[in-house]
Write a structure and sequence with these properties.
about 160 residues, mainly beta, four-stranded antiparallel β-sheet, 1 helix, about 35% strand
């Protein structure tokens, strides 16, 4: 079903939307850590510009992202299937289907890891605040949102990744 303008669909089966062709926008060696993660950019599919929505799948042994926090972006996750571990700077929380978690900008650094033998599936929702930056407390990495909406990654001291 398409919208009144016919430009974009109004309804879709989420799991039928093609996954992103790249598993990660991180530079190496960090991108390889996301090999067990797959994102379907639902928000992009519908042309949403104020917030993003991803249907994300993490295979056993995978993770959602590096431990990180955003300077301006709020994030929210809702677990649909599986039992991921929410990793925070000061501890871990076991999650299960039906649970959700929210991460205000400048809040706790976080990521999800899948330490089980079953696939984890969750919805990931975040705003697209201009000027957002991400910091990674365990890694020599920082990110800034470019004018074009793409992440620019550097070492903590500002040197670009090659």
């Amino acid at each position: 079903m398409t919208s009144e303008t016919g430009d974009r669909p109004t309804v879709a089966m989420a799991r039928e939307i093609a996954p992103r062709s790249r598993r990660s926008v991180y530079p190496e060696p960090f991108a390889a850590l996301m090999d067990r993660r797959e994102k379907r950019a639902l928000g992009d599919f519908f042309g949403l510009t104020n917030f993003g929505v991803n249907l994300t799948t993490i295979a056993p042994g995978g993770q959602s992202a590096l431990l990180h926090r955003h300077s301006r972006q709020d994030e929210f996750v809702y677990i649909l299937e599986g039992a991921p571990t929410l990793v925070l700077e000061d501890g871990e929380i076991a999650l299960q289907a039906g649970m959700c978690a929210g991460f205000p900008a400048r809040g706790a650094a976080h990521c999800l890891v899948n330490r089980t033998d079953a696939t984890v599936v969750y919805l990931e929702i975040g705003d697209r605040a201009a000027g957002d930056e991400a910091s990674y407390p365990n890694d020599d990495l920082k990110a800034a949102m470019g004018e074009d909406g793409r992440w620019i990654f550097t070492h903590r001291d500002g040197r670009p990744y090659e």
